[in-house]
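The following record pairs a protein chain with its ligand, cytidine-5'-monophosphate.
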Amino acid sequence: GTSMTEPVVIAIDGPSGAGKGAVTQHLAQRTGFQVLDSGALYRLTGFAARLDGLELSDAPSVAAVARGLNVRFVPAQSGHEPFEVMLRGVDVTDSIRTDQAGVDASTVAALPMVRAALGDRQQAFRQAPGLIADGRDMGTVVFKDALVKIFLTASAEIRAERRYNQLKNKDMDVSLAALLESIQARDARDSNRAVAPLKPAEDAVVIDSSGMPLEAVHEAIWAVVSKVVT
Ligand code: C5P
């Protein structure tokens, strides 16, 4: 018989602060594809678990929170985020972007039960005309059959500086040294965990954006994507 063709996936993986979010939005505009911000799902899980007063190490309870996440991504009309994130009907767009929420996300992301719980939810984003999936394990685990896999990275110092400027723009009170330390700790946790560690897929195109203006990063990635997606 005839086989159904699944919508194509473009996987954008890499460490925190490499510019995946900006690249994802840029590609979404150029292709009209759907977007999955998988990091937001881990951030939401950590955030909701804290709201519920759970220990983040309590895997079964945190996994239950992940499975039951009541979340909506609403395209934003204005502001610095492309989507407003509604958790249980409450706008948590900014609350899940704090450095603490990132640390909590990477803590719950190391739990296999949590990763399994978020697996189906991530698959559901694969819809026509295609999907841009932003994360750590999009090309290695969740969408192994992605048509294009990009691993976008940059030095920890440059990523800390970019994050510093982002948070400053949101009037958040941060120190560059503390951010660098936090990014290095998060890299170590994401890279050394047993399940779905952060690493490029064998068939990924690796792009180091250190010292590259954002425009140049966009063009380098579009050069790869436009060869296969029309
Ligand atoms: O990308 P973002 O910084 O929002 O992700 C927050 C954390 O969620 C990461 O540091 C990582 O630990 C976890 N994560 C993950 N797998 C993904 C996306 C995010 O483990 N696909």
